[in-house]
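Entry for the shared binder. Reason: the reviewer on the internal report wants the predicted structure included alongside the sequence.
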Amino acid sequence: MPPNTPEKGAAKLADVLAEARRERQRREKGYREQALKLFPHICGRCGREFAGKRLRELTVHHRDHDHDNNPPDGSNWELLCLYCHENEHARDQVADAYDGHTREDTGGGDSAALDNPFAVLKDLLKEKP
């Protein structure tokens, strides 16, 4: 096979990706094991306890979102259940989507938060016989 064929390039890419995945899994296993030794097996958000087979539902969340920042004291980690971990990352995605836009940017103002949807309810109730 010539040195620069698409098949050889694809095989090399597959090898590189497989090695990167193995390295990530090795790294994750290391800090996960450390976190499980350091912290109680309780979700840091919802407070659910995990033991036995359900312990796999407890994940390590990196507070600064840098998976390479793994201090031995665990100061960048918190244990979160799968649901709270997903919620945490979804909140970040929503914040990123807004990208710093404010209500004023979209034509809204601060008064929208002060609106009372039941303001006329008292008047409507008075009209009934």
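Summary line for the report: The mean pLDDT is 82.
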